[in-house]
Amino acid sequence: MTIPDYVKNAAQQECDNFLAEQTGALAAVISSADGFDVASAVTRSLDPARIAAMASSIAAIGSVVSQETQLGISKSVTVNTEDGVVYIAYIELQGVTYILNIIANSSAILAQIIYNCSEIRKRLKVL
User: Fold this and answer.
1) Which CATH superfamily is domain 5-125 in?
2) What is the mean pLDDT of residues 1-29?
């Protein structure tokens, strides 16, 4: 599937803005449902392609769990660690489902991450 340049550019801008504005953010990666990096902004030596692939797998596990437990459609998965958090959320671009993956250290506030991701979801959905 080919993603129009203006959609890629908007996704890239959202990743860049998130990384610049979110306290503790280490990575913001938007990937296809099958795990390919579409847009990303990272710090340190984090690899967006690896993050995209792992986020796709984790999101798939979340979907299976939500289906098996009959809790409805999975919207996000959160992984809390001793030094931070990984937040993976489904978003829509041009009617196609993508995955927004956020990695943040322990100075980040999960509620802010969730709120900011929901705002990104809204902005990208209307492209």
Assistant:
1) Dynein light chain 2a, cytoplasmic (3.30.450.30)
2) 94
